[in-house]
Amino acid sequence: MQAAWFSLGMLSLGVGLIGIALPLVPTTPLLLLAAFCFSRSSERLYHWLLSHRRFGPVIDDWRSRGAVNPRAKRLATVAILAVLGLSLILGVGAVIVAVQAITLGCVLLFIWTRPDY
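^ that's the sequence the OP posted. Answer follows.
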């Protein structure tokens, strides 16, 4: 079971790191999942992730208060609006844009209702 937790942790960390550059890939939830998985499989990677200067505070804020950094909220909002704008510019079908808008609107609602760190 430890190998499964480790594999899921590595996958979550890898995809989370890719999410830093790709707007629709959720970085923070994947880092939280990676921390959870590493806590069950690799004490060394778990502590590395928690002590990381960029990722550690995000994980700690979420774990202790369910909080999201205001700057991250703004960046997420800009990225979501950019994705929707790009979909409109590329002429993606109206149904797809509507589904995107509803889904991403729910994501924004969730993000903005979390307390600030």
